Amino acid sequence: MHCPTARIRAFSLIELLVVISIIAVLSALCLPAINRALISSKTAICASNLRQISCGLNLYAIENEGYYPLAVKQGSTGQEYTWSYAIWTYVGYTGKDFNYPENDLQGNTGRDKNIFHCPVTKKYRVKTLNTIRMPSASGSAWNLFSYAMNNAPNYVNSGSPYTAIRTTQIANPSKTALILEQDENPGNQFVFLSYYGLVPHNKTSNVLYGDGHVAQLRAEEFPPARGFTDAGLSEFWSGRPSGN
After folding, report:
1. DSSP reduced 3-state for 105
2. Domain residues for 73?
């Protein structure tokens, strides 16, 4: 008995082109949403880093009579003299975990796996870092840090960036910047706005405040730079209400 052979119908060229066109249109429609999701994810990771850093700073203060670490120790260079190294063990790492350049505080290799690296900033090298810099910033990047400590409150309270301050010397922690996204230490209004400030999250920057909350600010939302002891200096930078 002869069985009829089933005929397999192939795509015509026109049908194939139509399918390819549909796939291309769908991809074009989906890509912006995927990019937005990636940006949002990296922004959230950065914010999580800052919240963990806040915990480390507070633990440090508890064990040091209420004092924050200095942004950078006087007359010193190197990572071991920065605020971030001071709280290294307070955020869960051991001394053995700190290993230059594979797992340190600067974005030297991209292999760093600690919370002191923003997932966006660590992908940039010196030559391309200016593409995510504050519009008003003109400094030349060379240290490749992700975060800097605001030392304007040190100036305001003692006249010196090298005198440590207590947590209680920041009048309203919910209004004062503690850690900024910046590729050099230390941070304050002049350094951030004019030299090393970063806006790596779709032209915005994460800020850790003294009370531990993190806010995302656009470049134009940062208060302007004035003198360190000017009565009109924003509480955001100084830690003191305007007029005090």
Report:
1. coil
2. 41-238
| Nearby residues of 55 by Cβ (< 8 Å), 6 or more positions away | 90, 91, 212
Q: Quick check: is 3 in a domain?
A: no
* CA nearest to 189, candidates 137, 121, 143, 140: 137
Q: What is the DSSP string of 151-193?
A: -HHHHHHHS-TTS--BGGGSS-GGGSEEEEEBSSS-B-HHHII
8 Å CB contact between 53 and 208? yes
Whole-number Å distance between alpha carbons of 206 and 231: 26
Is position 164 within any domain?
Answer: yes
pLDDT digits (tens, 9 = 90+) for 147-171: 999 999 999 998 899 999 999 999 9
- Within a domain: 192: yes
pTM for this prediction: 0.84
Q: Which tens digit of pLDDT belongs to each residue from 208-222?
A: 999 999 999 999 999
Alpha-carbon Rg for the chain, nearest whole angstrom, is 24
The kind and range of the H/E element at 200 are none
146, part of any domain: yes
Structural domains counted in the chain = 1
Across the beta sheet with 204-209, what order do the strands follow? 147-149, 177-181, 204-209, 214-218
Check: CB of residue 185 under 8 Å from CB of residue 143. Answer: yes
Do 60 and 90 touch, CB atoms closer than 8 A? Answer: yes
Q: Which of 134, 129, 110, 111 is nearest to 207 (CA)?
A: 134
